[in-house]
Amino acid sequence: MESAMIDQLTVCLPNEPGKLAQMSRAMGANNIQIHALMVADTTDFGIIRIVCDRPQDALSLLLGLGYDATLTQVVGIEVSDVPGGLGVLLDHLASADLNVEYAYTCPMGGRTVDIVKVTGEPLAIKLRESGLMMVSAEELCTPRQIV
């Protein structure tokens, strides 16, 4: 089950023009591919959540550049791309007594994946028993070409 956990980069950035672009350029210049991104803002700063192909390298890079960054474990869960699909996912998590702290959606080669931060114990067992279609970091971060 451990392979179902995905390392997500969380970065706090000043809420100023160009700061997100600057961070993204630094990652790109170091051949780190961003596959999912969520931005939440406050008055003074933004919280950036990123799933990328090399999270440990990205963390080292951003810390070295002076960014406030951490790694958090999240899960990727395939969701039916129909009305009510998200509700089905959330019902599964609730029935397993897992709490959703936050979630965001990521397309994956014609499929829809929700990146979810869940809490509850024992997490790995509950996720395995939930019957949900888990998506690994490797699946999520496989490069795809759009033609």
Automatic annotation (TrEMBL):
Coiled-coil ranges (or none): none
One Pfam family of this chain: ACT_8
Species per Swiss-Prot/TrEMBL record: Tractidigestivibacter scatoligenes (Olsenella scatoligenes)
Sequence ranges assigned to domain ACT in this UniProt record: 8-82
Cited PANTHER family: ACETOLACTATE SYNTHASE, SMALL SUBUNIT
Upper taxonomic lineage: Bacteria, Bacillati, Actinomycetota, Coriobacteriia, Coriobacteriales
The protein's name: ACT domain-containing protein
